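User: Need the bound-state model for nicotinamide-adenine-dinucleotide:
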Amino acid sequence: MVRNYIGGKWCEPRGAERIELRNPATGEVIGEAPAGDAADAAAAVEAAAKAFPQWRAVPPGERIQYLFRLKRLLEENFEELARTITIENGKTLAESRGELRRGIENIEVACGIPTLMQGYNLEDVAPGIDEIMLRQPLGVVAAVTPFNFPAMIPLWFLPYAVACGNCFILKPSERTPLASQKLFELIGRLELPPGVLSLVNGGKPVVDALLDAPEVKAISFVGSTPVARYVYAKAAANGKRVQCQGGAKNHVVIMPDADPEMAPKVISDSAFGCAGQRCLAVSVALTVGEAHEKFREAIAGLAGSLRVGNGLEEGVEMGPVITSESKRRIEDAIEKGVSDGGRVLLDGRRRDLPPQGYFVGPTVLEAVPVESPLTKTEIFGPVLALEQVRDLDEAIARMAANPYGNMASIFTSSGQAARRFRNEVPAGNVGVNIGVAAPMAYFPFSGWKDSFFGTLHGQGRDAVEFYTDKKVVVERWPREWMRKF
Ligand code: NAD
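Assistant: Bound-state model below.
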């Protein structure tokens, strides 16, 4: 049974309602999680608020010592954590290791807080007057995270929040809470003051309680766009600082001068890696002019050869999707794409797939109408739609017309095309000959339009800005007050 970690102690969640957890590769029950109870959130908020005055007074150089220890513990328990991610989420072990590494990189960056958190100052803004900008922590802050990166996404926020002197509450996805259990088992060994880091499990009741608690000063959210919009509006109405990363419909452009071998390989990994359940997964490929024929053959060949199965097995390249409902939803979206006029190049519903578990094979369609949900909305599964366009203008216009703006990529050997794309495309994360343009921990994880609501992003310097408030001090020390020694 999944438990909560509140005030430095493990405790049983309140509320009788439970959610069954299943291994998506086998369908086996692997545990149960609480549906969530507002009282648990309230207890975590109370513990965090109590811990804050002492925690903010701990020197930043000492606060980061806990993070150095957390990094070491994560490295020592790396393989066990990666297995846990694979068992609860379904992605392959290599993918689990990759996300964990990306998470740890955020701890490394947050260890730079004594430098990153510095303010600035200017002497003599007027005669005898100096001005100083200080960054101070906000207080209690919380993050609500999705199922698809159960270890990495909590670590986009947690290290920066506590390094800046805040007390932090994590509300992980109720579909993948086990990686956070392991993370907090390690956090329990750090001997942090009780209440600095808390874990509260559950769904909407916990999120709503965090959004309503006046002590919670800031909320970070990652998940689907409708929930991102809801959290953004409610947090703002309650006077909180908020950053909400939403869903995506990522497009890639393949120019006629793209590398014919590298482009399909990298795009195949982007579209089908993590079974398409990455917010940076490519789901629409726009081929310009003569690029189409070569690309369609290559991508369908590569996608068809991917070994699909249990991510724990050696050699498996793609795992299942998260639940049986997801599988059904994705298969229905494929059917709709076909009935809307799309042509099937590779049908993931018809492959020999392991009979247990929630598998959808890689799927490639072409000529699906722009208005079909398959090309317009987020599918979050291993499905790629191909479409031939006339030129780069038309490709950029297609991307601009889509409501999402998480990531866009171009494959080309023309610096001019790449530069124009980079300059004009309305997306927050942009790739040039890159399939998954995931920003490193020291850059903000961007996102535009319906993929992000807020101003400051997660990771790097934006995270430091998000988790601190600026205080400007103007000081006058008249010369005539100076004692003569
Ligand atoms: P989700 O929106 O269903 O859930 C995300 C979180 O919100 C969970 O913790 C969940 O408990 C909570 N939640 C769900 N419904 C709620 C409600 N009605 N009120 C309050 N809280 C609620 O998302 P998911 O299915 O777990 O994750 C997949 C989605 O996340 C995709 O849309 C994907 O694109 C997106 N995502 C975006 C990014 C990004 O960086 N933009 C990164 C990863 C995932």
